[in-house]
Design goal:
- The chain contains 2 helices and 5 strands; from the N terminus they run H-E-E-E-H-E-E.
- By secondary structure, it is of the alpha+beta class.
- The chain has a single domain, classed as HIT family, subunit A, CATH 3.30.428.
- It has a 5-stranded antiparallel sheet with strand order 1-2-3-5-4, covered by helices on one side.
- The chain binds adenosine monophosphate (AMP) and zinc ion.
Length: 114
């Protein structure tokens, strides 16, 4: 997806602060952090949102969560707490149309979300 900003980040065609990467998953710092720890964990494969992920991708989705947990541990927020957010489609506020999980931590969060 040449016009997708997160595909371009995954391909290192545009710069980002990459925290983790392997053959399937990449994690980088959010450009506009909403918490002391704010990273985005994405699959390299392009899906516009969770709604477009086909059956058969269960392992990939689970792996993304475990990568997020590992980063939370490395960032020192695993015990204090963190939030993983997956915005999907318009009502959620999704802006970037490449599946991404937000990892937020390092401050007290409120509930319900806005
Ligand atoms: P969402 O509203 O769930 O689609 O969130 C998209 C997120 O991507 C926002 O938190 C943005 O700050 C973040 N973002 C947009 N462009 C970039 C970029 N080039 N590098 C890092 N994060 C970005
Ligand atoms: Zn993409």
């Amino acid at each position: 997806m040449d016009d997708c900003i997160f595909c371009q980040i995954a391909a290192k065609k545009i710069p980002s602060k990459i925290i983790y990467e392997d053959e399937e998953v990449i994690a980088f710092e959010d450009i506009k952090p909403q918490a002391p720890v704010h990273l985005l964990v994405i699959p390299r494969e392009h899906f516009s949102s969770l709604n477009q992920v086909p059956a058969g991708k269960e392992a990939l989705l689970g792996k993304i969560l475990l990568v997020a947990r590992k980063i939370a541990e490395e960032k020192g927020v695993a015990e204090s707490g963190y939030r993983i957010v997956l915005n999907t489609a318009a009502d959620s506020g999704q802006e970037v149309l490449h599946l991404h999980f937000h990892l937020l931590g390092g401050r007290r969060m409120t509930w319900p979300p806005g």
